[in-house]
């Protein structure tokens, strides 16, 4: 499953996730504004995926630049990077990808603009390729935690669609299935945009992994009925102390898992860890249009004029997280110490 693909003609194709599972179509992005718009409207979504897409978007933004010096070129590229980074504030992978490409640009020894553009494209391709490799590594580490026959609850979509390929939380599930563990999945629908119903259920069916769809408010009862063995989710940003921002509704699942004595795992690449923020209280939480709550597919589902609050993410305190799964291994408490040691390797 390709979330995105770079065409050598100088074009990025993005799988339009806003149309799944009804229609599988690709958007052609020919400049950074196309990529920014796709990220903003969730045609491409998931922290690692938007990081990789934005990297390619930055490359597209440089193609028409004709600066007279490296310094002027860098200044113009920095402006494009700021524009892309502003599309979604919570997922740190987006800013991480921009910083990585800007570092590559600033430290390049050449001043030839063609060579600088080539170097940026090579780095964007490397980000894409590394994400797929790292997801497979993460999956291998994580699947060790999954018992045979486990019934796994997940929220939103942290699969191939949310990454360059394979997935984080769903990557662990895929790896467990590939190891012959015969797992099954319960997927929360994930209001208000139904990423669990539209995307996770679609991915699991495509991978021939048994999946059952739940409305968000069924999770607690499913746990009480003994239908869930563990919870595994992705992440959009992890603070230095292990507090984790993920799709709205994740915090409630963590509380429910704690109350029912179930493991609650977070699966995310190192690019999602932000040691610059000490706790989750510092993570900026994106708030989206109220119409995502009051309407569905353009049709009203609430009285006209009613107010709606629509934070896209919440923060799960580190004390509720059993372990954090990364491409370098499984991290346990104390997260503040162990995450810093992990990132220093």
Strand element count? 16
Q: Superfamily at the CATH H level of the largest domain?
A: Translation initiation factor eif-2b, domain 2
The CATH class assignment of the largest domain is Alpha Beta
Total domain units: 2
Structural class label: alpha/beta
The amount of beta strand, in percent, is 15-25%
CATH architecture of the largest domain: 3-Layer(aba) Sandwich
Helix content: 40-55%
- Total helices: the number is 11
What sequence of helices (H) and strands (E) makes up the elements?
A: EEEHHHHHEHEHEHEEEHEEHEEEEEH
Sequence of strands across the biggest β-sheet = 6-5-4-7-10-15-16
- Main beta-sheet annotation: 7 strands, mixed
Poorly predicted regions are: none
- The CATH topology of the largest domain corresponds to Rossmann fold
Shape: globular
Radius of gyration: 20 Å
Q: Give the integer mean of the pLDDT values.
A: 97
Termini Cα gap: 32 Å
Task: Give an overview in words.
It is a single chain. With 345 residues, this protein is of the alpha/beta class. It folds into two domains: 4-135, Four Helix Bundle (Hemerythrin (Met), subunit A) (Up-down Bundle); 140-343, Translation initiation factor eif-2b, domain 2 (Rossmann fold, 3-Layer(aba) Sandwich), CATH 3.40.50.10470. It is 40% helix and 17% strand. The chain contains eleven helices and 16 strands. A seven-stranded mixed β-sheet has the order 6-5-4-7-10-15-16, sandwiched between helices. Strand 8 (237-239) and strand 9 (244-247) form a beta hairpin. The protein is globular, with a radius of gyration of 20 Å. It starts with a strand and ends with a helix.
